[in-house]
Amino acid sequence: MAETSTQSRSIATQLDAMSPTIIASGWSSQSHIDRARISLMSYPAPVPAAGRSRLSQFLVDAKVLTREQAGELDTLAATQQNLPHFRILKKVGSGGMGIVYLATHTATGRECALKTLNVRLADDGDFVSRFQRETHALAGIKHANVAEVIESGECSGHFYLAMEYIDGPSLMTLLRDYKALPELYALRIARQVAEGLAHVYAQSGLIHRDIKPENVLILRSHSSGGMFPEDDVAKLIDFGLAKSTNEKDERLTQTGMTIGTPLYMSPEQVRGETLDCRSDIYGLGATLYHLLTGVTPFTGSSPGTIMSAHLTEPIPDPSQKVPSLNPLTRDLIGMAMAKDVDKRFLTYEALINACSEAITALAVSSHSAPQFLRKPLVLKTGVKKPLTDRHPTPDEDRSAESEPLNDDLKRDAISTRIRAKHRDLRDSAQATIPTPDRSETTVTRSASKVYEPAPVSAPANAPMLRAVTEQLPIKRKHLSPLPVLPPMQTPSSMVLDDEARRAVGTGVIPWALLGLSLAALAVYLIFLRN
Predict the structure, then answer these.
(1) What SS3 class is residue 198?
(2) Per-residue pLDDT tens for 48-97?
(3) Residue 72 belongs to what domain range?
(4) Is residue 34 annotated as a catalytic residue, yes or no?
(5) Same structural domain for residues 211 and 307?
(6) pLDDT tens digits, 185-208
(7) Which of 149, 473, 482, 524 has the fewest beta carbons closer than 10 A?
(8) pTM metric for this prediction
C-alpha cells in the first residue's frame, strides 16, 4: 500500500511537470488532466508496457492520451532530462539534421526553437566541430531578416541550438496554400532574404548552402490584414549546413554525400567545388522562381536527375508559366541562376538593387494601369440646360456658357431636362389627336355596352405649342400620334382566337383509315383459316 502511494505521488509529480507539454501539443485539456489527477489516488500501481513509462501508461489507461501520443510524450520527457536548461513544450518539426522543439529558455523565460542534433551526426567529430564553430559565429549576429541564435552547446552528449521562435508560416506553407505568390510580394521577400544573407556573409563569411522555401519563415503582425501584407518580415533559419567560404567540403566528392537540397542547389555545389556567396544567390533565384510559378525550376524522378539538370539543362523562362511577369523580374531570375558563376550577380548588393528596381517598376505600372470604371453621366463644361419649359434666348445661351455649374446644379439640370422633354412629347401627342366624332361614339355605344371611351379634347394652348415648336431652330424627333381604336377593333389574344377557331372532332380521313385497317385484318384472318 505504501509502495502504491509512493508511485502515485511520483506519477503526480511527473504529470505536473509534463502537463504544459501535453496541453501545448494539443493532446488534452487542463480540465481532463485535473480529473485524471483526482482519480490517481485510487488508481492501482500501473504495469507499463514495454518501452513505456508509468506516467504514459497511466495517461493511456485514463484515456487522456492515445498510445502514439504516449510514445511521443516519453521521447519529449527523455529530451527534457538531457537538456535541463530548457522546458520543452512540443515538437514542431523534424528532418535529417535532427528534431526541432518549441521550448522555453529557463534563464531568460524566452520562447525559442530548440534544435537537437541527430545522434548519427553527433558521432562525426568533423561535423560537430564545424557545427559548434558556426553556431558560435551566428550567436553574435543580429539582423531583422535572420533568426537570432539564443544559445548553442552540448549537454550530456546531446548537441543543441536554440534560436528565435517565429510563430508564422514558411514560404513552403504559403505555396501549399496558394500554389504561387504575387510577384510584388515575392520580390519583397527575396530582397529581405538577400539582405539577411548579405549581413551574415559580411560579418562571418558564412554561406547558407540550403536556401529553400522551407527555410524562410514569415513573421506577421497580428494587426495586418490580407493574405499578403506589405509588413511581412522574412526570417532566414537553419544555418545547420552553413560553412565558411575558405573551407572545402571534401566529403562531398569522397563519399558522394550531398550537402543541400537538390531542387535549389547551384551547379558548383553539385560538383563539390569551393563556394562563395554566388552559390546562395543561385539558390535564392531558384526559390524565387518557385514562388512565382508554383513549380521548381527543374524536376526529376531522382535527386541525381535533378542535380544533372542544374548542370546541363538551360534555365527555364518563368514568363512561359507567368506571362504577366515583369521583364525585370524575368531577367533577375535568369542572371541569378546563370550556369556560369561569373555571369551571376557578383554580390548580394547587386541582387538587392535588382530586386528594388523590379519592385519600383511594378509599383509604377500598378499605379499607371487603366482603371476600368463605369463612366458617370455628367454635363460638358460650359453647357447649361434650361431648368424650365421656357426655351432660352440667344443672349441667355451666351451667358450660360460662361457660368460653370456645380455638381448639384448639374444633377438638377439633368432631371429637369428629362422631365421637360417628356412633357413636350406628351403635349405634342395630345395636340395632334383628333376629336372623335359623335357618330362613332354612338356606334361604339350600340356595339358594346361594356366599354365607352371618354371624349378627348385638345388642350386650349395646342395651336400655340405647335407654332412655337415649328419656329424652334432645334431639330426634334416628332412622334406620330397613336391612333385611338374603337373597342371592336382592339386585337384580342391570339391564343384565345386560336382556341375559339379550333375545330371540334378529328375529320373523316382517320375514320376511313381505321375502316380499311379493320377490313384488311378481317381478310387476313379468313386467309389464315382457309
Answers:
(1) helix
(2) 665 568 788 888 888 888 888 888 888 888 888 888 889 998 888 877 67
(3) 1-81
(4) no
(5) yes
(6) 999 999 999 999 999 999 888 888
(7) 473
(8) 0.61
